[in-house]
Amino acid sequence: SGSTFEEIRTPVFVAALLGVLGSIAMLSKSLRRTIGLDSLLARLPLAGTIQKLDEAVTTYSSRPGALMVKV
Q1: C-alpha to C-alpha distance for 54 and 69, rounded to whole angstroms
Q2: Which of 32, 38, 49, 67 is deepest in the core (most CB within 10 A)?
Q3: Residue 1 pLDDT > 70
């Protein structure tokens, strides 16, 4: 029954929750500004690549129709 996955249930739930919260933070302009997400991303290794991906995500999230046409 449920005891098979009892050991990993909490870490999986926490990872999913962090993923949802991270997605909200990535897509909210005011929250990004409040937590300084752009400056944090600029300090990471491979910052140029990460910033390009971030720009693509924020661009297409504001235009879902364009994304559907491309896919």
Answers
A1: 20
A2: 32
A3: no
Q: Could you identify the residue written with the tokens 């996955």?
A: 5
Q: Is the pTM of this model over 0.70?
A: no
The phi-psi region of residue 36 (left if phi > 0; otherwise alpha if psi is between -120 and 50; otherwise beta) is: left
Q: Name the DSSP class of 45.
A: T
Percent of the chain past pLDDT 90, that is, above it, reads 28
Determine the Cα–Cα distance for residues 2 and 12; give it in Å rounded to an integer: 14
CA distances from 9 to 1, 5, 20, 24 (A): 13, 6, 17, 23
- Phi, psi (deg, nearest 5) at residue 45: -60, 145
